[in-house]
Amino acid sequence: MDILYGVVGEGMGHATRSRVVLEALAQREHRIKVVVSGRAHRWLTERLASFSNINVEEIEGLTLSYFGNSVDRSASLFENLRKAPKSVAKNVEVYRRVVESGFQPQVVISDFESWAALYGLNHRLPVISIDNMQVINRCQHDKLLRKDKSFDFRLAKLAVKVKVPRAYHYLVASFFFPPVRKKYTTLVPPILRPEALAAKRERGDHVLVYQTQKDNHELIPALRQLGYRFRVYGFGREGREGNVTLCPFSEQGFLDDLRTARAAVAGGGFSMMSEAVSIGVPLLSVPVQGQFEQELNARYLTALGYGTWSETLDVGRIADFLERSADFERNLASFGQRGNATLLRCLDELLERIQRGEPRAARLESDAPGKWEPETDEDDEDEELPEAEPTV
User: Fold this and answer.
1) Rounded distance, CA 171 to CA 105, Å?
2) What's the predicted TM-score (pTM) here?
3) Which domains does the chain have, with CATH numbers?
């Protein structure tokens, strides 16, 4: 089949996950045109260069601005508005090239990327969504959310809903599996890169810290107060300060330090969290403030006993977490959802249905840890619009 595949460029988790799916599709001899924004464009271009049936195009996407450990919504809005004229012009040019190239996709796959999804709707093509974000909108979380988070929850649901609307089916990667409340939705285990799949858990005595705030001058002095060895990534420099080792960026080095760590301290990003859970490493999560999806991940991490979370990073919370790390590790032993086979079976089923011209199924036949049940259905006027039906 000819497939148009869109990848959002904000954060690298979408790119690493999409690489896994794209390689599997290429090996199945599908022809794929990828549209991707941000630094994910160069990363995917380099890693997919060996596949002659994959072509990668760069588009412009939205970006987020941060202040400390919080999303700066005003700055994000201003920056995206500032870039809007140039971004629109570039994306229109890419749209023209896709149309004039003679490439006629039969299906669109979107990893939280709007350009490809809108292309699919405009051309009356089936759109398959593969991401982790749709868990916010398409599952039930009543038992987990506080009332004072209701506005953030509603805002996040709306943002996720409009990002990839009226898809043929939603494949949602997750390490937690709440009840599915909408048709055309299937929960699958985390999509792991090959290096993470091959990572063997060998517990050591160091603590991995992944820190994205380079101006967090209080972190290292705080870690030096604790009686553990720390390996810290994300400061952009190397060195050693007492029991704290500052590590240079290295994908393999980071993964080796993760699989051999006593425990890990990081943000609330899904990719890092799902790799830690899948490998069996206890995690203290400090979500970016204003990123509801990260807080939801962290709340489920805590509820399942795989680790804990905190709004701020301080000595007391780190010490308490590390004292309990053995309990968290025992709980992680029950996870047992490691591998990409479930996702690929579901995707193959969807592509085969589309190729045969079948109407979309509210519930897939392939085994999966989370599926829609009729008694959990919630009416949604957008679900049945005709644009969602395939035209092959």
Assistant:
1) 20
2) 0.87
3) 2-193+339-388 (3.40.50), 194-332 (3.40.50.2000)
